User: Fold this.
Amino acid sequence: MSLPFAAPAVLVASIAALIFASTAPPAAPAGGAAAEYAVEAPLEVTPQEAELTATGDQADVVLETPEVKGESVQALPVEGVSEAAQESPAALKEAVPAEETEQIAPQAQQQLGETEADRHLALLTPVRTAPTFTAVGLTWKATAGVKVTEASVRVRENGEWTPWTALEIPEVGEESGATGRDGTSPLLSNGADAVQARVLTASGSAPDDLKIDLVNGGTAPSPRVEASATAQSPAYRPGSVSGDVLRPSGIVSRAKWGADEKKADTTPSRSVKLQAMYIHHTASSNSYTPAQAAQAVRSFFLFHTQSRGRDDIGYQFLIDKYGTIYEGRRGSLNDLVVGAQAGGFNTGSIGVSMIGNYDRAKPSAAMLESLRKVLAWKGYAYGIDVTGKTTLTAKVEGASTSCYQDGARVTVPTLLGHRTTNYTGCPRQYLFNQLPALRTDVKKLIDAAVAQHGAAGSPLKAPVPAAKYAGNQGLVLSGKVTLRWKKVPYAAKYQIMTRAVGQKDAFSRNGFWSARSTTTALRKAITLKPGETRVLGVHAIDAQGRPGPVTRLTQLTRPVSWSAADLKVKDAALGAKSSSAANGRVVTAKKQGATAAARSVVGANRVTGRVQATKGATVQLRQGSTLLKTAKLSASKSIKTISVSLPRRGKSDVQLKVSKLAKKATVNDYSIGLSRSTLAPAATPYVAPGAGQVTGLSSPGSSASATAGFTWKGRSDAAYYLVQVQRAKAGAALTGAYSAPVRGGAASFSLALAEGESARIRVSAVSVFGRAGVSTTSSVAKRATPPAPVTPTPAPSPAPSVPSTPAS
Assistant:
């Protein structure tokens, strides 16, 4: 079959109601309350408690760390169309898409916009033999400017050639951590020794620096991990913290599947909230052993980091057909690390990828069970309504698999398949068809966790600033600031969070922070780079690595640097050193028409110049050729500040020009600053973790006793209990309101009852964070009315005796 030139069939595709609400101060205890119960008061964490860290979190016991042998990455440069290869009929057969396009969003076909005219053969290699490899993909120079419409490969496994496979071409974007090379997703193999590649482009020209990247994930024993028994969490760290009570046991850490951390960078981007959870498959063989499953994870890791130049593997988690869960992108166990798994929608989402191809086989029961556990864990931790919907905003930069344009707002299920938003068939029919049942099953797991353990919440509160900061300080000549904050209970360390851009960049959307340095101190000195605008915040991290919400502190800008890359000067030069100059030296102009221009400015909303003239002069501030402001300078030793708003945010040079100059005068430019509008990354509110529902609540029922004693099963996650009482007088129904809550530490409550009075209580456990769990209501207790005393019936009086009449 000859190669078709039609459009390619590839790349298309709450718990909020339980949040603890504060109430008005409760009234005095109900009559008869035990002395240990008192009116509820705000919870105060003691200094001793503040030093405590969690000790009851689930841990994995490592039995052995596998030694990986034979890992390799090889790049084969390729170019042109091989005439010899063209003569082979097999070389021109149609490619089988790695990801089919049925059931994709309707917008996908509308926006793809490719025609037969866009599909010209630009590369066809001869067969290339190589040492055994387990993954193959194509990469090229990111700045090539060539539209690749299909990139296909076929490989030889055990002497047999696979069909041509059209590979997915994901985007290169800021959030994915890519560092310079465009390319495809990899095709996985259990072992191949030859490859042939083919590329179609819109122009017929191949991208620059095109390479076939071959990866061998190496060999290692199958990682063996056992989960330790889950210790009871002490009351000050309930199991609802970060949803850890639902954390699956036996997750294979990066160290255990053999991640070479020297080949990865720490992914800095952190989503401010979790909105959606994507389900993927790897579109690879379903015939693999446990050891080959770990090899597949390493192959992904090596291709993403070494061939594509990404900072890490794209997925947050992977699951094999045996039900083994693998930690993916570093940091994903405890934080919302932004991945590279759903082009255009990486922020605010996580991706869980099933190892295999689920167009060809159904996912195993073990795989689905592990998938439920991962989704329930994260859904519980972040308060996701897994049967509901959410609205995502597309963030598209350059080539992308997104079905939507940059900035589009898309309403989707919170638990969704990759193909819902992207040009792909992933996760294929047999897995995609499981999504409705998955949503239902996962919701049941989350609901049960909320009832048993309370609503999940943050392990830590947000830091409180220890100094006053302006929301936007504008220009700070030194570019230095010291951040200060107050101590957060349970914090082991603090991390600076930031968003930063240089003079040639603009802020993107505000749905994420960039995680930076950590400290155990309550202050941190920060120095900006010249020309940089930086938003600064801080959050606390506990001993288990779990972060709390971010507190935004301030925003500031440092003037541009005097380097030739950033500042273009004409008829001016660096002059004397000066402590008053932002960059340590002034730019001196002695000629009319002299200019100092900040190059390629993007996103700034205001320019500020600090200048001084030895004699009279007139200076202008310009954006491109547009005159913005003119200022006359009189001879003075003092520095004058002139500032004006910039009408355009697009790329332009911003210029300080000497338009008039007195004879023998000199104009000294001390700095040019380019400040930006205030950026406020979306806030993550603090959500207090709750305690679970009280169980085993017993009532004495009906009794003649004047005191009713209620008991329940004590909870390890309860700092104290709240009890409310409902009463009814003798003969009345229990329909009245409950009393204000009273507080106590014992799992029992005594209540005095009047004769004939009935009552019941409602009990809820409260975590050390002050959040109550679901309340439990007792059965009715009643003090019986004693029977009225019986008055004895008096004995009848004897008849009066009649005296006898004496005989006559």
Observations:
- The two ends are 160 Å apart (CA to CA).
